[in-house]
Structures are given as structure tokens and as C-alpha cells.
Write a structure and sequence with these properties.
The complex is a heterodimer of chains A (190) and B (248).
Chain A (H helix, E strand, L loop, with lengths): L3 H12 L5 E5 L4 H15 L2 E6 L4 H10 L7 E5 L2 H4 L9 E3 L6 H15 L4 E6 L1 H7 L2 H15 L5 E7 L5 H10 L2 E4 L5
Parallel strand pairs in A: 1-6, 1-7, 2-3, 2-5, 3-4, 5-6
Chain B lengths: L8 E2 L4 H6 L4 E2 L3 E6 L5 H14 L4 E5 L4 H7 L8 H5 L3 E5 H4 L12 H18 L3 E5 L11 H18 L2 E7 L14 H5 L2 E10 L2 E11 L8 E7 L2 E6 L6
Parallel strand pairs in B: 3-7, 3-8, 4-5, 4-6, 6-7
Antiparallel strand pairs in B: 1-2, 8-9, 9-10, 10-11
Helix pairs in contact in B: 6-7
The chains are: A alpha/beta (190), B alpha/beta (248).
Amino acid sequence: MADVAADVGTALAETGPSVATVLQFPVSQYFEVLRGLVDFTQSKGMGMVYITAAVPAGTILSTFEALDVETVNISFVDSISQMMMSERDDSGKVIYVESPTVLENIILKVAYLMRRAGDKKQLVLVDSINSLALHNDAKMLSEFLHVLISSLSPKEAYPVVLATKESMRPEIAEMLALVCDQVVELSGPE
Amino acid sequence: MVNNQEREKCASGIEGLDSILGGGFPVGSMVLVTGVPGVGKTSLSLEFAIRGAGAGDRTLYITTIERPEKLLASVPEFDFFRQDLLDEGMLTFMEVPELMDAVSMRGRPECREDVLRFSEALSRYIDDNGVRRLIIDSYSAMFHAFDDHGVSRDLLLMLSEMIYRKGCTAMLVADVEPSSTSDLAITATMESIIADGVIVLGNHQRRSDLLRTLQVLKMKGTSHSRSKYVIDLTSSGVLITPLLRGGA
């Protein structure tokens, strides 16, 4: 039986920093993939900048708490709550962006959190490319990822893009293959 | 006197801006920072001042709208601000009457003679204190009582000559009305023609989103990007990233 969380850690450890990695997986494995990413950052003593375009950061934080996942080193850039007029999280861990269409502001908030983190290495997670693709066309997304990944490269961050198999459109898959350095296919338990 | 052949750069200290400018402003430049209210002109100027003072450039910040105490109340929010810059005189905030030793004045010059006295007082202050960076915020508000636009342009010409000779780099904040001319048309104004550099801060509407933008329209003595960038005003300073075009 595949251990998806362990596979995530292995894939990232093998490639090292500054390699833009797409993790493609069945949606049923979503939380296993997240667990793998959190475990990886903890094992490396890194922080995580979590860009969410699918689910409000407050919901992710609550889920992590329920799953006993440590969140102390995670900061969020939430691009969905304001657009959906969801409740704001007041833990101080979340920065809000007006909507998933202001991609430049997402880049700037990541830059701000990277600056605040100082020398501490970060994994920058885009969750998910499918959600961003609901609001932006492939050309905008490719430019967004290109600028984001380029800005992270000198900081030796780990750029990771989540992609769920079920909702992957061909033009998005093509764009990811062009812009990112590697696509890691993760499968769930048989 | 600044050597024109090898014009030294005055790094603004604003990371993204310095890369747009190829390292910074040419020393001795007079740069106009212009835009509608609320786009970040004062934040940009404050960062230029604080980072400059922190890097060892004695800096004078002349306020013409807000009282220095009010501006000073906002600077500790910047995580790059240090109180010792004020205590040791590396960074000075001042109103026009204080500079001219004319406490009876109502905050800004009221006649052509006042403008001349202001220019002389500023020249003396720069020499006496070794000022390397000068900010006037806002330059345009200094002249709101004047019908004769020639007065502000005369002062601009005097300032331009003065700061170039002294090797001081100046940032002048100029407000434009929201209904005013387009960003590119700003370069055609007399003030922009006189200035060595023009930075336009503005808003970019994309569908229902409004983005704050920065564009360097002109900077003599350096090769620079003329593209539009998106900015964010944060406690870590002004952050800058390219405006995405989406293949357009």
C-alpha cells in the first residue's frame, strides 16, 4: 500500500530547494499530501507559506488541529475568504488577498512573509492550481508561476504546486510541464 | 559637483525599485514622485528617507501638509526604522517655517519672496548639515495658494541646479487630481520636463480588482525599465512585482 505522505517527503528530499515541483494526486489523497508536506518542513526545520485558493485558511487550520498537525511554522496567504465573504481568522497566521485573480498581490504577500521569515528556509505551497484555474486563464497562471518561482529561487525555497488529477485540464497540465521543473505523480492506496 | 561621466548611484534601498533603476538614482537627481491620493507616495518617500539615513546618508524630510509629529508617529511601524537615526540627526523631519526660521508663516510660502527665502534657507541647511537626501512632501501642496504656476517652476529650476551642484539626491512628492491627465501625459507637464526623473504611482483596474502600480517614466543618466509594476505597502517597506500581462 502506498504511503503518500512519505512519498511526498522522499520526492522533495531527492530534488532539494529551488526546484519547482508539481504534486499531482487523486483528490482522496489531499490530506495525506498536506501531512507529507508538513512533516517534510518539520523534519528540515523549515517554515511553510501556504497559498490557498480552494478552501479558506481558517478551515485548513481547523482541519490541521483536528488531525493533530503542527501549524506553528505555517503562514497563510488566503485568496479565497475575502471573495467568498467568509469569516476571517484572527490567529495572526493569515494574510488576506482580495481574490484569486489578483495574482500579483499573492506574489507580494509571499514576498512579505519571506522577508519576515528572515534566514529561515520556507516551502511555498500553491493549493491548488486547479482552483486558481477556475479564476484565471492558463497564460496568466503561467506568468504568475514563472514570476513566483523566479522570486523564490535566490531564497532557496521549495516551490510546490498542488494539482488534483480529477480536475486537471489539458492546457493547465501542459502549462505546468513548461513552467515547473518536475511533475511528481502520487497515487493513493490500491 | 557631480562628475557626469561616471555618475554615482544613490541606492534608494527599496529592493525592487533599485533593480528597476539599474542600481538607484543618479546622485544629484531631482525625482518627481507623482500620483493620485492614496497610492503610496508618502510611504515610498519615507522608505527612501529611512533607508538612506540607515545607510549613512544624512537626510532631510520637509513636510508641507502633515505635521512632522504625525508622520513620525507612523514610522515606527516600519520594521527597518531605527530611533537612533532621529536621535543622532541622520534623519530630520522639518516644516517649512522651521527651516526658514519664520514661525509666523502658515506652513508654506505665500509670495515669490518667500520662495526665494526658502531656496536660500534650504541651500544653507544642506551645506551646514551635509544633507545627501532631500524629500519635500508634498511639493505641489507648497504652492496651492499661488495662481502663478511660474513660481513653482522657478523654484523647481533653482532646486534642480542646487541639488545637482551639491551632490544631493531629492525626491519631490507631487499630487495629481484623480480626474487629471493619464500617467503617460504626466511626462508632458513642465514640472516633469524640469525634473531628472519621474515616478508615477497609480491604480490599475483589472476586471473588479484595483492594483496599486509604479512606473518609472523618466530617469536621466541611467538605463531603466519603463514597465508597469504592482506594489504593496507593508511594514517591511514597499514591495514590487511585475504587472502580469497574461500574454497580452
